[in-house]
Input
Amino acid sequence: MSQPQGFIDKDHPEFVCKLERSLYGLKQAPRAWNARFSSFLLSLGFTSSYADHSLYVKRDGPSLVVLLLYVDDIILSGDDDVHVQSVISQLTREFDMKDLGVLHYFLGMQIEYQPQGLLVHQSKYIRDLLHKVHMFDSKPCTTPCHPNQKLLNHGSPPFHDPGLYRSIVGALQYLTFTRPDIAYSVNQVCQFMHSPLDSHFVAVKRILRYLKGSLHLGLCFQPGNLDIRAYTDADWAGDPNDRRSTIGFVVFLGDNPISWSSKKQHTVSRSSTEAEYRAMATTTAEVVWIQQLLQDLSLSPSTTPLLHCDNISAMALATNPILHSKAKHIEIDCHFVRERVQQGTIMLQFVNSSEQFADILTKGLCFPLFSSHCNNLMLANAQHNIEGEC
Output
């Protein structure tokens, strides 16, 4: 490290400082902190999850303690209060930590405890964002985008403040952690970060207006079975700029959505079957990851994961042992999904397009259908504010 200003050695100005320990703010500090904290957890009997290296699990007989680490913010839970308090005491003796009690607020997400389960939302984050962009008094709208909206990379003047555009869109990306209903719209505006147009900023303002009207919406998690259900869909050649397809999926654990995505494929698909099949492969990989995560938590679903798809041709391709010549260019995806089907680790089931929950992640929908899918995704209204919220 260079010698700090005001403390430069006059005899050896070219010398540098040798750090005996990492300091906050240096590039290597987070890595050193993580290594230090991880090694201590391992000494307490925790094991790192294979699915998520920020997740640590400790089994002590029939009891289970789970610790989730994000830099220096920690969530600690378990099925035995005595073992949880023991871990808290050990961590407090080793590190300068503060026990904040029952989880109510974590990284911008608010957690409410209701009779029917947990409600996770970001109403305070949304309110702060609307105040920041001076749109808190804007007129609400019922959907985050127009039905079948497609943004173009031409036909409109460049937006005058690209930095503002990137700042707002980046904040909206973080909102998709608890708001799958805006995932598709945010994915659309994210594709023009490098050179936004006025029409793109109009689309961003519509998302903000929708958030104004749905300020307290959040995900409701209710107790139930651990069966995995996944819905996958693709909007073939839906992007008019490069004709790439948009894929979307949502994975349910019981009746609770736990993973979702809306993104554009990296290559152009030559048919709707190929687009749907690539979406199926992406969803299958996510289901396999969730299975590993549940295994690390000593949880096991009672049934085989079910993958719902509304394309019969893609389903036939997944079960057909003969690889057709027209599908050789997606051979890797074919083998991946087909092996999972043959092993019995995943089952395929056809679903009508009207009941395709992932539809909300691939295209803009009219209000009645959009509202129906929001209900399917267990979106509910928050009723209370956290202490100190303004």
Q: What stands out?
A: The first strand starts at residue 47 and ends at 48. Residues 384-390 have pLDDT under 50 and may be disordered.
